[in-house]
Specification:
The protein is an alpha+beta fold and about 300 residues long. It has helices spanning about 15-20, 20-30, 40-50, 65-75, 95-100, 105-115, 140-145, 150-155, 155-160, 165-170, 230-240; strands at about 5, 35-40, 60-65, 85-90, 115-125, 130, 135, 175-180, 185-190, 190-195, 200, 205, 215-220, 250-255, 260, 270, 275-280, 280-295.
Length: about 300
């Protein structure tokens, strides 16, 4: 098997460059040949990953959730999609948490060379792919508004400080959500709406029963709470949501393979932590759409949530 390793030299405070020789030699023990590529921009990263489809068996890469989103957009539209190997090196790394891939570079590289290959759903919002979440409302813009230089110094605290204004003055969005399979609908004003293919979001265990490849999204609409609407958002962050409790005092929940959401044209969506389109969206779950390497389960079969339907 051959492999290309694409990395962002500025991600993770430059830790990747310091471990460059180790990464190269470790990958060469498993793959032949190994090509190392330093991306110069997000567009360059996407182009390189897209060009790798059908040419390389494994695309390994480092970066945060935004980098993962860029890689997903590069490969998900291609017919021949390589296996992904991921070294988390961002600020929050929700995808790394979901897949139990550590930020420790040596351990993450060992997973790329010795881990198990699993299936992962992808999402399509209008014509843009995503890996784990799209959201609208309070706090959703913090991930791309916060300056990179501040994130490097303060880490997660930078997001908290940048989100204080949203905490005091939460944004309210008017949405009409329709599941295209069952016709189920949610309609109203909410301070936060999330469409999740993930257990964690923003570093919090929000969707505690979340599943990464069951073919469905979990849609969570946080309800307004008198004048202090952020109270219910904080409830979700700290206590999470459960599928068995679809309607509670602080959130309403539904599951869907394909849905539409109508909203204000001036409201921007956040896609895997990046700024997306505004207005109405059509969202589709692409079941088992890509493969990724995860930690090997010692003496245990792979969790059913990672297996394709035919193998469960």
């Amino acid at each position: 098997m051959n492999c290309i390793f694409i990395y962002n030299p500025n991600s993770g405070k430059g830790r990747i460059k310091k471990k460059f020789n180790y990464i190269k030699h470790a990958l060469e023990e498993k793959y032949d040949p190994v090509v190392i590529y330093e991306s110069s921009s997000p567009d360059d990263l996407i182009k390189t990953a897209k060009d790798a489809c059908g040419k390389y068996d494994v695309v390994a890469f480092s970066g945060g959730d935004g980098t993962f989103n860029a890689i997903a957009n590069a490969i998900c539209g291609e017919e021949k999609r390589p296996i992904l190997g991921y070294i988390p090196s961002g600020t929050v790394n929700d995808l790394g948490r979901n897949l139990k891939i550590p930020k420790n570079i040596k351990k993450a590289v060992q997973i790329i060379t010795k881990g198990d290959i699993v299936y992962h759903d992808a999402g399509l919002i209008n014509d843009t792919y995503f890996a784990y979440v799209v959201g609208i409302g309070t706090f959703t813009s913090v991930s791309y508004h916060t300056q990179q230089s501040i994130k490097k110094i303060l880490g997660k605290m930078a997001y908290i400080l940048d989100g204080l204004e949203d905490l005091i003055y939460p944004r309210i969005v008017n949405v009409k959500i329709k599941d295209l399979e069952s016709g189920e609908m949610i309609e109203g004003e909410y301070p936060l709406v999330l469409v999740l293919n993930s257990k964690t979001c923003g570093g919090f265990n929000i969707d505690r029963d979340g599943h990464l490849n069951d073919g469905y999204f979990d849609i969570i609409c946080v309800k307004k709470f008198y004048k202090f609407h952020s109270f219910n958002i904080l409830n979700l962050f700290f206590f999470g949501a459960r599928k068995k409790r679809k309607i509670t005092s602080y959130y309403q929940m539904m599951r869907s393979k394909e849905l539409t959401i109508e909203t204000d044209d001036q409201t921007y969506w956040t896609i895997d932590g990046e700024k997306g389109m505004c207005g109405n969206v059509h969202i589709t779950n692409l079941h088992n759409h890509f493969r990724i390497l995860v930690p090997k389960r010692k003496n245990k079969p792979l969790s059913k949530q990672f297996l394709p339907e035919d193998d469960k």
